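Please review the protein record below. Tell me whether the encoded fold seems credible here:
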Amino acid sequence: MFPAGPPRHTLRRLPLLQLLLLLVQAVGRGQGRASPAGGPLEDVVIERYHIPRACPREVQMGDFVRYHYNGTFEDGKKFDSSYDRSTLVAIVVGVGRLITGMDRGLMGMCVNERRRLIVPPHLGYGSIGLAGLIPPDATLYFDVVLLDVWNKADTVQVSTLLRPHHCPRMVQDGDFVRYHYNGTLLDGTAFDSSYSRGGTYDTYVGSGWLIKGMDQGLLGMCPGERRKIVIPPFLAYGEKGYGTVIPPQASLVFHVLLIDVHNPKDTVQLETLELPPGCVRRAVAGDFMRYHYNGSLMDGTLFDSSYSRNHTYNTYIGQGYIIPGMDQGLQGACMGERRRITIPPHLAYGENGTGDKIPGSAVLIFDVHVIDFHNPTDPVEIQTIFRPPEACNETSKLGDFVRYHYNCSLLDGTKLFSSHDYGAPQEATLGANKVITGLDTGLQGMCVGERRQLVVPPHLAHGESGARGVPGSAVLLFEVELVSREEGLPTGYLFVWHEDPPANLFEDMDLNKDGEVPPEEFSAFIKAQVNEGKGRLMPGQDPEKTIGDMFQNQDRNHDGKVTAEELKLKSDEDQELVHEEL
């Protein structure tokens, strides 16, 4: 596109042949070429030997035309040609500036039409002729091709070739636009194209940066719209033309594709595409969010997508980690929401753009699906779904051995794990660091038969790195049901007595009274205590392994048997340690 200001180079206009430009003061009535009936021609003979398929307008009196011609006599001798001067004739028709025969011969002509005109003497130079060039009573032959026609009453002509179904906004004065164009003269001669330069033409509208006709022709356009804009020369480059490519008094035709439009005063535009029911929390600055997106230019050209990487984009919002427009556009979103965020370039990548996919001054459109978000200060969210109607005097607490069913998913509904897939409840000792912190917390204070929904932020789950099957920084949703609970043991204990232990513990344990207790006697004794309800082993572990660990603890010299000197209660051991420390 050329600027609206004065061109650096102008075409030098050569003087046109006086016989065509000056009003002939005396036209004789001399005899001309005979008509087919034998008499002289009374009017111009017009032979239309090339008529274009499309003819949007025909020459009328008062129109300004530009055309090429060859002028010859009846014997074929050339007396004049605009081609020889490499300069078109540019003149108003029907107002006496041409010989009468040419005035009449041009009427009704279409752009790119070719005519042969036979002009009798009385409609040419009559009985006088033109000294040295045109003899008296000469019949003139002209081969004419019309290249342009316009009128001072013309305005910019706009034809919409394609208009998109969705039009978020239309061009107004003061807007900044990016568009592609092909520029031609009215006869189809190309003079410029943005496509050949590999980039859009970027400019303000209505601020004097463009020729007036283009300023007018772009108004009301939608992004993605295609238009044909025909501009008369007085709204283009006028009498001077532009350089060597746009001649003086040339009408211009632009085929325009609008890529995008924005205004420096624009803010981020939000459009909710899908809002899930029950939105109880909206994202705020400082939250950490995981979301999918498709990023496109305003004309629909895709420049990036998280889906193509099969990975969400994870970031803090409102803290400058992403472009300002996205920082603003993500705030206030709900989990699971889909929204369209339109970001003007001054809140995106500005005049320079980035990389080879986002050009300078580009408006960006992001279709976003919010997967989840959390705040580093978030606790576990606990919601009781069902609580048994019968009285619940004891609830789960740290140290308890619990069995529970669970379903675990992401907040977008993606299923991760379920105890039902294994056909048995999950088992854990609360507070033993056997499950993630958030689940451990959420299982405390439950009654047997109670069902809960737990929302666990990643810092209480699998953190930034995630785990097998769990994305990094993912918020997890658990549905849990407490199946059973058993009282836990104090830290460090494998077995506890429900009442005081026997006064003669070793003698009771030494079943064959040989002064030593092998593993078999030790195991039989402990199992008997458990069966009789006198004590209990640590829940959640293999009893044989637990009893084996207890025996190893008592067999202090590792000789495969326990003696009276070796056997000590855990409480006695702890007391001895206290004395040693003292």
Remarks:
- The radius of gyration is 47 Å.
- The mean pLDDT is 89.
